[in-house]
Amino acid sequence: MIQEYVRLARPYFVLLAIFAIGRWLMGTAFGVPYEKGTGVLSIVTLTLFASLFSAAYTRRWLRYRLAQAAGLAMFMALVSQVVVLLSTAASYLVGVSSYFTEPMALNRQTDPIGFGAAMGFRVGGLVVNTILNGIIGALGWALGGLLPARER
């Protein structure tokens, strides 16, 4: 099933790479303040919409059951959150201030936090966002019943 998820998520992975690179560049090379730029290339928002739409389409056109569609959504969220976690770790280890180390992104505070605490927040985000995307995938699956049937 994972191979099927990887195959279906390929377009999403391209977008995820674009968003991750964009967040790196906005926070470092271009110096766009976090408050102005974070909503433009939000990995969490991208993943939520991808989960919703992917689950809807897989229900109608690939005949996915609820668990399969929610599983795809959770898989995409897991990959996304691993990218966020690794980007955060890389930012700290290299000593680069980026959107991934921004305190508002980590704990909604303005004071900088250490590496260990940041990783704790990111692991929490990995768990919470994976579950949330499973729920959004289930909602997308339900909405998939509204799509027209695939013509053969």
Describe the secondary structure blueprint for this structure.
Layout lengths: L1 H7 L1 H18 L6 H4 L5 H20 L3 H29 L8 H5 L7 H30 L8
Helix pairs in contact: 2-4, 2-5, 4-5, 4-7, 5-7
Question: Features of this protein?
Answer:
single chain, 152 residues, mainly alpha
Overview of the molecule:
This protein is an all-alpha fold and 152 residues long. The chain has helices at residues 2-8, 10-27, 34-37, 43-62, 66-94, 103-107, 115-144. It has one domain (2-144). The protein contains 7 helices and no strands. The longest helix is centred in the C-terminal third of the chain and has 30 residues, at 115-144.
Summarize the structure.
The chain has 152 residues and is mostly helical. It contains seven helices and no strands. The protein has helices at residues 2-8, 10-27, 34-37, 43-62, 66-94, 103-107, 115-144.
For the sheet with most strands, the description reads: none
State the low-pLDDT regions, or none. none
Distance between the termini: 24 Å
Give a count of the beta strands, DSSP E runs of length 2 or more: 0
Strand fraction band? under 5%
| Total DSSP helices | 7
Helix fraction by DSSP (H/I, runs of at least 4): over 70%
- The outline comes out as elongated
Rg for CA atoms:
17 Å
